[in-house]
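thought: fold this chain, then report.
action: predict
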Amino acid sequence: VLDKDPAAHAIRLGHNEDLFTTEVIAGDWNWIAIPALAAPMEVTVKTRYSQREALATVEPLAGGRVRLRLREPQRAVTPGQFAVLYDGENVVGGGVIKN
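observation:
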């Protein structure tokens, strides 16, 4: 399942390779190690609890959202789940995946 459209009562299906992405937009951030993201930052990110951390650059966007540019494609990054950012052992913050 690549996408759900509840208003149209439809789902969009695709192939496994269609589930990989290198860019994620997230919002509703809870910053822990920093007051707010003011400039691009190199981090590692997890978009699933059981996932290994992946290298990424996080960039601030308007409205408190951020863009994550993943160095390697990640599978099944899902809106509504959380992206958690790390700087080594420290949690930088976490936010809700929008797309």
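thought: worth noting. The beta strands are 3-5, 10-12, 20-31, 41-46, 54-60, 66-75, 82-87, 90-97.
final: tokens above.
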